[in-house]
Amino acid sequence: MVCTCNAGYTNTGSADNVVCTDMQSASEDIPTDTVSASEEIRTDTGSASGDIRTVNIPANAKWSQNGGTIAGGNGRWGGTNQLNYPHGLFVDDDQTVVIADYGNCRIVQWKNGDTTNGQVVAAGGFQGNGLNQLSVSTDVLIDKETDSLIICDAGNHRVVRWSRSSGTTQGEILIDTIGCFGLAMDEQRYLYVSVYGKHEVRRYKLGDNIGTLVAGGSGQGAELNQLNGPTFLFVDRDHSVYVSDSDNHRVMKWKKGAKEGIVVAGGQGAGSALTQLQYPVGIVVDRLGRLYVADQGNQRVIRWTQGAKESTVIVGGNGRGAGANQFDYPVGLSFDQHGNLYVVDRDNERVQRFFIQ
């Protein structure tokens, strides 16, 4: 199964990578390719869900350099043992991994230890705009208070909620008419949403359809009060919002109430030096304030310590490929409560786990 577009929408992607665009509101739509085809770098990728449970990682921590596949890795299609351009992910306390399976128009979960088959937990039929359907979902998180999934249903320009209760067959709309991309939630259950086409991040009280601007909103650009294609998010305990400002090749931190952000990683143009990023996507911040970034175009995950002038590669960086120590566009990023690292390896159609050492 591969998603197809509803009537009134046009596939602006490809046969394998469906991106459904309402041509009348294309300015808010999710991105397709962000650079020329010759560079083969796309940010049609979902985010690792930023979550207020900041992980406690020792200062001298290292990770195994060879990852183990814990979801997918069996080719691109719609079987329960497969993924299709996976995007964002969320790792629960019991190490269950919930994945936005973008190309299959569904959300799947893989329980710890079950590396054979996942379980479809939201949608999974054909692409559509019904309450029982999704269209190119980019990100997902778990709302513990209601034991539900909150999903960026990007192709339908909405954020939806699906109960995790057995037998659930449809979701409900939380926010409509929004070109969402990445999601995060703080401890007060305010929801943060990046709006890719409007170059901004908004905060919503659940049940509110308007929201408050918390980052960007000054048009597309590279000034400190601007964003350019924001994708994934992380919110810390001080309610500072970290934004993967993907098309500016930087990560920004916007303190609560700030009118402009601070560059905390990259910002030196696209490149492979340790001072640079290339279309960053998934981000996580640990309790020591260190920033972890899925540096998509450089096929690596890097760590940026506060005040440092350059980053450290923690996994990957061995060229584009399908080896256990390689990525083919790393996208979603998360840690479990033990400090093990999970990376959505998009074009290898898999999720890799790297054990902390």
TrEMBL record:
Top-level division of the source organism's lineage: Eukaryota
Q: Where is this region: Disordered?
A: 30-51
Task: Report the GO terms under cellular component.
Answer: extracellular region
- NHL repeat start-end pairs: 75-113, 221-257, 271-307, 320-352
Is-annotated flag, keyword Transcription regulation? no
What are the UniProt keywords, alphabetically? Glycoprotein, Repeat, Signal
Q: Which InterPro entries match?
A: 6-blade_b-propeller_TolB-like, NHL_repeat
Is tRNA processing one of the keywords? no
| Protein name listed in UniProt | Uncharacterized protein
- This chain's source organism reads Rotaria socialis
